[in-house]
Structures are given as structure tokens and as C-alpha cells.
Amino acid sequence: MRGHFNYLRPDCVTECLDMLDQYGNETAILAGGTDVMISLRTGVKKPRIILDISRLPETRQVEPYGETVRVGSTLTYSELIDHPVIRQEFPALCAAMGCVGSLQIRNVGTLGGNIANSSPAADSIPPMMLRDAEIIIQKKGSSRIQKLEKLIVGAYSNTLEPNELITGIILTKIKKGYRESYQRIGRRKSLSIARINAAILGRLNDSGVIEDARISVGSVAPSPMRMTNVESHLKGRKPELKTILEASRMIAQEIIDLVGVRHSTEYKQPAIAGLALKCLEDVFLDSSVN
Amino acid sequence: MTAASIKEKQSLIGTSVPRIGVDGKLNGKALFSNDVAPKNSLWVKALRSELAHAKIESIDIKDALNTPGCVAILTAQDIPGNNSFGIINKDQPLLAGSKVRFVGDPVALAVAISEDVAELALSKIHVTYTELASIFDPEESLAPGSPFIHEKGNLLGKRLIKKGAPELAFEKADVIIERTYQTTCLEHAYLEPDAGYAYFDSDGKIVIYASTQNPHYDQADVASLLGLEADRVRIIQTNTGGGFGSKLDLNTQGFLGLACYLLKKPVRMVFSREEAFLCTSKRHPLKIKYKSAASKDGRLLAIDVKIMGDTGAYASYGLAVVSRSAIHATGPYEVPNVSIESVFAYTNNPIAGAMRGFGVPQVAFAHESQMDLLAEALGVSPLEIRRRNALRLGSTTATKQELTASVGIQTCIEAIAPHYEAIRNKTNSKDSKKLKGVGLGCMMYGIGNTGTQNPSTAQVELQSNGGIVLYSGAADIGQGSSTVLIQIVATELGVGAEKITLVNADTGLTTSAGATSASRQTYISGNAALDAARKLKEAILTEAATMLKANRKKLYMKNGNVLDSSGVDSSVSFEQIANKAKREGRPLKWQGFFDPDTTPLDPETGQGKPYATFAFAAQIAEVEVDILTAEVTVKKIIAAHDVGKAINPESVKGQIYGGAAMGLGFALMEEFIPGKTVSLKDYHIPTFSDMPPVECLIIEEPEPTGPFGAKGVGEPALIPTAPAILNAIADALGSRIYSLPANLERVMKAIHSGASKMKFRLNQ
Ligand SMILES: Cc1cc2nc3c(=O)[nH]c(=O)nc-3n(C[C@H](O)[C@H](O)[C@H](O)COP(=O)(O)OP(=O)(O)OC[C@H]3O[C@@H](n4cnc5c(N)ncnc54)[C@H](O)[C@@H]3O)c2cc1C
Asked: Would you list the DSSP string of B47-109?
């Protein structure tokens, strides 16, 4: 049955935070609504108030700041993909955002919503993890900044309080010589949640040795995970096919060891390795270096 | 100019007249049942069983009735007529009386002032059940000692087909291939969930507007449920957002009729997507054991096929699928020795009914895989083995029906052959992690219902203003039958399409055209409309001959006038003719009729003539398999379809494009898991981005009994696609998938079991 609720649309962040302070516990924040509308329909959420944050000017900007870029939380995927700074600085994030749902979903869905929804399969999270993403969270009278990895604590679960609002995301710009890649597997070519997704960022030094490698894999555990063991394994090695194959297999093995062998392992193990291989090849083997 | 050449020039046959109503569909202005239901209608909602098999001990409706705004709660006891319906077997209660047989079986209706109140009232109905043992597997269902789902037992039906001496042929064969194939339950996933509304008209008739494929059948069954004469119920089809077979059933019509009849008030009903998923019919999952024998020279000698089907809780169109899957098990090939057994059982799964192809897409997956396996074993190409065995003029089918005309399968194969060779010869890409493959799929499809009368009727009337009205019971559900019927009548009468007013799919104004199913409306209702138009034409020409004092044989029709071709400059308009005939009391409304020439099948041997004509097709699918992730991309589909005559080529292509999309879904992603699949969130159908370019090659081997040579294409469009894709995957990987869909997991398994072609392995 359709629920009944009041609809509020604040005009600025201050007003929004006031409203959250007052009604936070009985409120569902609505940005693009692509997750919220579904939970309203299925009855998972029965809020008394819908708080529409889609038109808060302070959350709708892309601001480069030194080595970082501050990205407003309610910008839509389409807006971000079309933004020159985002395209320039965050190719893997752009690729990931381009995979979300369909054009209709990307025209309304927001980055802030993807983070706050905290799905294990969220497309934007693995590439943001590799760019030291920090989330700007505000509530009435105060604000805090939390690392993305720390914010998300499990499947659909995070540290946000009912009176808090994500206003922005701070991401580190791409540094010289770095390359990155985003790959995902879906059950069809659009409108499918990632079955597995992965982002890899890395750099070779002048002698062609891997100097930095960062790997994040989604949809395999309750939340997207960094593969720090494999990252250190790769550092200091030459990116030969053998090494990269080995790293791909290690990534898969480490994940299977963590989540245990299940019915899906027969598919997932080779597919994780395959996906990781694609990313690693993209980052380290492609000849055209930045 | 001769009369014949003038007629030729004016013909609309073979021209892509824009689809009737297409603008409304494109600009969103077309109205559907739920858009036009009267505002004061009461809302009807069904309470559905959450148990798969249970005895109903009691239904307590007191609390529900006390819900403010709830007008009535209806149960089986309130049904005045015969509480069982079904198109072939009347085995389905409108509201469950003594027991429920699947999750979704309706138990009670709430009628209320709003949808919300109706839902609230439903939540207050208390049903006491005693759970019964449930069965979800057809083989188990037929095993001795299984609990009965229906009083008559769990066997829905059986079809046997025997031809020649298969045992002997298997002994003599050079190659024998034996495999088991499995397909799954599928959801139709039409755009518009079921909807309708009903009210009493001033004559005391119940008028039901519904999203339906089958108005005249609806009328008969609703009347029987209500214990009324058929003419007390009028069904009018509204714009229908797709059906694919499921809207042949009574999904909302019975409930609407019951509530309207008992409450004497307008009522409306619309299914949510979840409800449509839960309770409307599905495609039959089939298990097909297929054994084929061939000689060294690549000729089929024999097949032995055993089909086990799960028809779910009620029959719906199940029996049609029992027979059709058996008859089509040979595919479009001449097989001298045949043994086919098709057995379907009831289970406590969702109802399986009609879905585009009635079992043929499932068996085509099996026979086309077998053809490729035989080709491989014999060392001939997949194309060649099909060429050698494809039906031709004079061939006999499994039921010993001799094919005497319009056998286009060889032509279809030849049409795709150069494309097939070209794709084969393309150098495989350097990227050894993406393997390319190409596959073929061929099919035949009998047009119309199987071995039974399935006539259509139509009337064509000349009005006093010279306009023409065509009356047809045929429901156009988006496939374009209305446009085709108009083209046929307009061409016969030498007028433009705009001169024809169509009145269709309204039991109050039209006579039965039978169901919009079995790809039959162009062929059967097209013929009925043509018959009516011919009779009217005769009448018009006779009138004109008298009025013009001319030789009737020299007269021809053009733009609503009758003219004399003998050089005399004289003409008379349809309007003048109509007025004269009317004054003098001669009829201007003529009835047409057509029933295809079929015979019932022998119950023991399956021999007979189940269909008057067959459509044929051959398709190619080109695929790329990513061996790292097991993702399959279909790069191209080339589809050659023998449609007899494409009355409206763009409509034919539309059917092929849509069919290819449905076939791609069947091949790669669609799977309805009873108890698990809820909505489009977990039932994936192909999106625009999954679809490759589809190239249509329209083949026209005219059918002498068809209207202007036409047959049908609605279901044939879908049938070859999945087999072609599966054969292409096998070609790419060197290993084969026997269960549909070929999802990520199954493809990954095939990658790791495939050997020959694999140039790159991750675990090398
Ligand atoms: C058809 C479909 C396909 C989809 N496909 C994908 C896909 O491929 N990949 C993918 O990752 N996701 C997908 N999604 C999920 C969804 O689109 C994304 O998660 C999207 O980013 C959510 O953003 P939104 O603005 O619509 O969030 P909303 O639905 O408005 O909100 C989502 C959640 O976050 C909270 N929230 C939103 N903004 C804030 C904020 N600024 N501060 C605090 N809390 C906030 C809301 O209260 C809610 O709990 C799909 C959804 C649909 C319906």
C-alpha cells in the first residue's frame, strides 16, 4: 500500500540541517530517489517525511582545491560525467558512473546517494576508494569528514546519523604517471547491478617497475574492499604477463578465502581473476603511458 | 490498361502502410484500460494464496467487511455460475473453493472505494488452510503415489507421434547423438500489466473493457462463470500493451464480471507488476531427451524424442503446447523415422500457458543443437547438414502431412548462406580473450491452432456515404493485425486504407475471429476479411453493371468509384451504388469466413494434418564471448523468414526485431524462478544495449490458401534466435550448453570445459 508522507524541500543546506535536526528520525532523504523510491514502494521504508535535497546549491558544485577536488553530493551522474574537471581527473570514476543503470537513472541518481545507500555493488565506490575519498558530513551546528572506507561499515550500512547530510566528497586528483581502470560484469549490458566490479590505479617508475598499485573490488563482500596484500606484492615488480596473471589469481583467491567457498564460487573465482586481469593489463601493460 | 494491371498498381499489399494507432503509442496519448476506467468505479483486488498446495478450511471475512470503504468481499460461494474456466480444459476456478494449487491462486476479492482500502480489507481476511504436500517437478508429479493436484490426477496430456520404424533406423545409423536439454519458466513481461473495467450498460448487459488477446473466448467464459447467456456479456478490447500469450487467459475479466454483476456498480482492476509476475501464465519449462540418427552422407534417419513438460497448477493452453512441441520436434527437416512422446504434468508451480511459440522455441533449442552435433560428428558444416535435410515440396512431416506448397526453408537457408560463409571466413580477432562464434538456427511453425477447427469471421459493409466498414473480432495487441486487415480489404475494393473504418475486438459489434495467437490473424482472419470483401465487391460490381449498363467483366474499382475499362468514359461512385442498393433493399454488409484445412491427429500415431500451412525461418547469430568474464555479446543477427507474402514489410520486420530480442533473452538471461522472481528487478529481459543490429531477409514463397499469399510471422520471429545464439556460443568455445539460459555461470563452466578453440586460459 502506498504510504502517506509530508514532502519538504529546503532551499539551502542550513535549512536542510534544521529540518534534519527536527525530524531526522522520521525522515527519508531523497536526492535522485532511485534507491529511496524503491524502498518506499516495497514498504521497507515508511518515513513520515520525505526531504528532497536535490536543489541545495551548496551541494551542486565541483570545486578543484589544490591537489584535490571537492565534488558536491547531489550532482547527478550525468552532470558529473559531462564535467570537464571530473573527466580529466577521474577517468575510472567516470567509467564507473557510466555503468550505472541507464541514462534515465544517471540523469537523476547522485554520487551522494550511491555512498549513503552503501550497496556492496555500488559502481562509484571502488574507484573513489583509490582516490583517498573523504566524505563531508554535516549536521546542525557541526561537520565532520570521514574516510569513505570508514563510513561504510557493511552491506547497506554506514555511520551516518539520521540528522546528518553528506554535502560533498573530497577526491585526490590524478598524479603524474598514474593510470587507472574500472571494469565490471553485469548480467546484461545496461540496467544491471554489478555482479563483480573492480578499480585499479597504479604507476610505473622510470625503469618500468610497479611503484604504486591500488586495487579495490566490489560486489564480492559486504562492502567494496581494498586488496592491500596484492598491492604490496605487486610493488617493486615488473608488470610482466606472468606477474599480472599471478596477481589476478591472488586477488580472486584472497576474496574466496575471505568469503568462503559457496555455490557461486565456481563462477566468481575465475571471473574475479579475469576482471582483475583486465584492469591490471589496462593500467600496466598498455603501451600508451600518460 | 487492363483491369488487372490497374488493380496491381493500387495494391496496398507489400507496402508499409503506417500502423493504425502508431502515433498515440509514440506520443503517449494512447489510452489503456486503466486510463479510461470511469472515475466512480469501485476497485477490485484479489487475495492470493501464499501456500503452494493447501486445503481451505475456512475464510473469515467479518473484519475485512468492517473496513470503512470496503463494499464487498467475494469468495467462491458468491460465484453464480460454473466456477471453472480455461480455454481448453475448464480446470481453473475463478476463486479457489476447496483448495489452492499454487502461490498466487486467488482466494477472495475485496471491492472497495479505493485501491488502498481494497488492499487494507484484503489484509483483514483470515483464511485457515491445511497445508498439503506440494510437488514442483513434473516427473515427481507423475510418479506413483504422488498426491493429486486435481481430482482427475496429475497428467495434463500426452501426445505420441510415430512414423516409420525408428528402432530399425537407429540400428543402421552411422551416427547417433543423444542429449538432454532443459529450459526454464519464463515471464512474458509485456509492457502493460493486466487491467480492465466493467459496468452495466443501459440494456442491462455487463460491458467489460479489458487488455486482452481473446475477446470472444473471454465472453463465453465470463458468461459461464456468471451463469448467464453469452449475449448478456460484452467484451471490448482496449489498447493492449502486449500480450505474448498471457492475455489469452482470463486475468482480470472474470473478477471484473463477477464484481460488476453482483454489485451492479462499475468496477476496475489493475495488476501491479508484481501481481502480473506472480499469477499470470508462464512459458512451460521443458525437459527434452533427444536422440538423432544420421547416415554417413549427412541425412537424418530417425529421431526419438521424449518431452516432459511442467504445466503448473492449471491447464491454460497447456494441451496446445503438449501437441505443438511434439509435432515440431523434428524442426524443419524431413525425418523418415520418428518416435516422439510429449507428456505434461500438473505441479504446484505457477500456471504455464501460451507464450509466443507454444513450446516450439524450447524444442527448436534441442533440434538445432542436435543438428550441429550431428554436423560435427559427420564432419560437414552446420549449413550443409541443414541444406541436406531441410523440408521441400513433396516432403512429409512427422505427422505424415505432405507439404504441397510454400515450403520456404531451403530458400531461407540459401538466403543466409553467403552471410554465414562471410562471417565464418572473417579472421578471428587478435584479442584471444574474446572468442568469436557464429551459429545457425532454423525452424518451422504451423500457422493456426493444432489439428482443430479455428475459424475466423468478418464483415465488410458499404455505407451510404461510400465509406467502408470492416468488422473483425481480431484483437490487435501491438503486432499490427488491424493494419494488415485494412490493407487486405482496401486492396480488394480498390480504395485507400484511409477509406476503411475498422470496428474490431468488440463482442457487441463483431463476430468471433478466434484468438490472437498461433500467428493466425493475418492468415485466418485476413482470409475471412478478404472473403467478405470479395463478396461485397461482387455485389458492388453487379449494382454498377446495372447502373452503367456495362459489361460487368470490364468494370474495375478505383478510389471509391467503379469504372469501365472498355473505353467508355463512364463511372459510378460507391456512394451512388450504396444509395441505390439501400433504397431497393439489397444487402451491403457481407460476411466472410475462413477455417484452415486441418485434420485432428490420430491419438496413437499422431498422424494427420495439424496445420494448413507452415512458416519457415533461418537465422544467424554472431557472438563474442569474453572468456575472462563469461559475458556474451551478440554482435549481429541475420534473419531470413518465409512469410508467404509480407503484406506490410515494416510490420514483418517489427515482429522479427521484437522476436529476436525475445529470443536473445531466452538464450542468455531470462529465467523465472517460482517463489523467488518478483518483478523486473530480478527478471532480466534484454535492453536496447543488449540488442545487436538485426538484418531481416524477407522470403516470400506464396501460400496458395493465404490472403495474397501470406502466412504468419508473429511467433516464428522468436524461434530460431536462441538456438542460433547457443550454437554460436558452442562454436566460439568448442563446448556446448544444454540448459537455458546461457547465463554467466553456465558460460563460464563451458569456457573451462571447452578445449579445442581456447587460445588463452587464465589458469594456464
Ligand atoms: C533501475 C536502477 C538501476 C540501478 N543501477 C545501478 C548501478 O548500475 N550501479 C549502482 O551503483 N547503482 C545502481 N542503482 C542504484 C542507485 O541508482 C544509485 O545507488 C544512486 O546513486 C542513488 O542515488 P540517488 O540520488 O538516486 O539516491 P536516493 O535514492 O535519493 O537516496 C539513496 C539513499 O541515500 C540517502 N541519501 C541520498 N543522498 C544523501 C545525502 N546527500 N546525505 C545523506 N543521505 C543521503 C537516502 O536517504 C537513501 O537512503 C540503480 C537503481 C535503479 C532504480
From this structure: EE-SSSSEEEEEEE-HHHHTSTTEEEEE-GGG--S-S-B-SSS--B-SS-SSEE-STT-EEEE
> Distance between CA A276 and CA B247 in Å, rounded?
46
Assigned CATH topology for domain A6-52: 3.30.43
B349 CA distance to ligand 1 middle (Å): 35
Chain A neighbors of B752, CB-CB under 8 A: 270
Q: If interface means Cβ-Cβ distance under 8 Å, which residues of chain B face chain A?
A: 116, 119-120, 626-631, 633, 668-669, 681, 684, 686-690, 743-745, 748-749, 751-752, 762-764
Beta-carbon separation of B628 and A275 below 8 A: yes
**Residue A1 pLDDT more than 60?**
no
Contact B741, B641 (CB under 8 A): no
- Cβ–Cβ of B628/A271 closer than 8 Å? yes
Which run of H or of E encompasses B544?
helix B526-548
Is residue B83 within 8 A of residue B94, CB to CB? The reply is: yes
Q: Is A105 in the pocket of ligand 1 (CB under 6 A)?
A: yes
Distance A28 CA to ligand 1 centre (A): 12
Question: What mean pLDDT value characterizes chain B?
Answer: 96
Lookup: cell for A75: 550532482
Cross-chain Cβ contact B763/A1 below 8 Å = no
pLDDT at residue number B9: 52
Asked if residue A32 has its Cβ within 6 Å of ligand 1, the reply is: yes
Residue B552 lies in a domain: yes
Span from the CA of A179 to the centroid of ligand 1 (angstroms):
28
pTM (predicted TM-score):
0.97
Collapsing DSSP to helix, strand or coil, B291 comes out as strand
Distance CA B435, CA B431 (A): 8
Tell me if A188 and B687 make a contact (CB, 8 A cut-off): yes
For residue A102, the ligand 1 atom closest to its alpha carbon is 3
For B648-704, write each residue's pLDDT tens digit: 999 999 999 999 999 999 999 999 999 999 999 999 999 999 999 999 999 999 999
> In terms of Cα–Cα distance, which of A122, A130, A241, A229 is closest to A181?
A130
Give me the half-sphere count of Cα atoms (radius 13 Å) on the Cβ side of residue B50: 4
> Is residue A34 within 6 Å of ligand 1 at its C-beta?
yes
User: How many folded domains does chain B comprise?
Assistant: 1
Residues 6+ apart with CB under 8 A from B641: B412, B615, B616, B617, B652, B656, B696, B697, B698, B699, B713, B716, B717
Which of A102, A270, A277 comes nearest B748 by C-beta? A270
Domain A178-284, second-level architecture: 2-Layer Sandwich (3.30)
With b for 16 or more beta-carbon neighbours within 10 A and e for fewer, the B715-727 pattern comes to bbbbbbbbbbbbb
Q: Which of B627, B681, B686 sits opposite A188 (nearest CB)?
A: B686
Cell matching residue B171? 540400428
Instruction: Among A21, A25, A27, A29, say which to mutate for ligand 1: greatest number of ligand atoms within 8 Å of CB.
Output: A29
Sign of the dihedral defined by the CA atoms of residues B99, B102, B103, B104, in that order: negative
The C-alpha atoms of residue B392 and residue B720 are separated, in whole angstroms, by 19
Whether residue B92 is predicted with pLDDT greater than 80 in this model: the reply is yes
B19 DSSP assignment:
P
Contact A1 B120 (CB under 8 A): yes
CATH architecture of the region A62-172: 2-Layer Sandwich (3.30)
Centroid of ligand 1 to alpha carbon of A140 (angstroms): 23
Would the CB of A100 count as within 6 Å of ligand 1?
yes
The complex scores an ipTM of 0.96
**CA–CA separation, A39 and A42 (whole Å):** 5
CA–CA separation, B161 vs B365, rounded Å?
A: 20
Q: Considering the domain boundaries, does residue B448 fall inside one?
A: no
Q: What is the CATH number of the domain that holds B546?
A: 3.30.365.10
